[in-house]
Design brief:
single chain; 151 residues; alpha+beta; Aminopeptidase; 7 strands; globular; binds coenzyme A
Amino acid sequence: MVRLMKEDDLERIMKIEHASFPTPWSPQAFITELTENEYARYFCLEIGEKVIGYMGLWFILEEGHITNVAIAPEFRGQRFGELLMRSVMQRMQVEGMERMTLEVRASNYTAQRLYERLGFVLAGRRKGYYSDNREDALIMWVELDSMGAKG
Ligand SMILES: CC(C)(COP(=O)(O)OP(=O)(O)OC[C@H]1O[C@@H](n2cnc3c(N)ncnc32)[C@H](O)[C@@H]1OP(=O)(O)O)[C@@H](O)C(=O)NCCC(=O)NCCS
């Protein structure tokens, strides 16, 4: 089940966040997103009452800017990332979103393959975008109507 994230989820979210990213967000960063950012939407994927992944985005005009997506390591490789993203994409399309974008590390082929399966296409590159290792970011976009036709 995909549902909105709550502050109660944060202990579990922080475990997944730390297991997933070299420069994890702080709990306060999530709290600010959940309580103060009117553009932010954060979702959890729950399987049998256990949160196994999450995804966040900013809904600005008709566009979704994805801030993060992660699946707990022990649940990876079972297409849960695709389930979560497809569900959020469908939900946001119903709310009037037309397209989504994200940045992904140039070396993160696993995530790039997932995004391509969902219809995202490469639109550009930000040189040295990631401050920890100066790695480039690839910018990807998807038109949600094209995704809806497939999904
Ligand atoms: C990117 C991510 C969300 C994908 O979620 P997922 O549910 O594992 O996605 P999939 O099930 O489609 O599996 C992805 C690939 O990992 C492979 N895989 C298999 N078992 C795996 C395991 N135990 N752990 C990791 N990957 C595994 C799958 O075979 C698949 O390969 P393919 O793309 O060649 O088919 C997840 O890997 C993740 O949380 N990564 C860390 C955070 C991250 O990079 N987020 C994206 C930032 S832009």
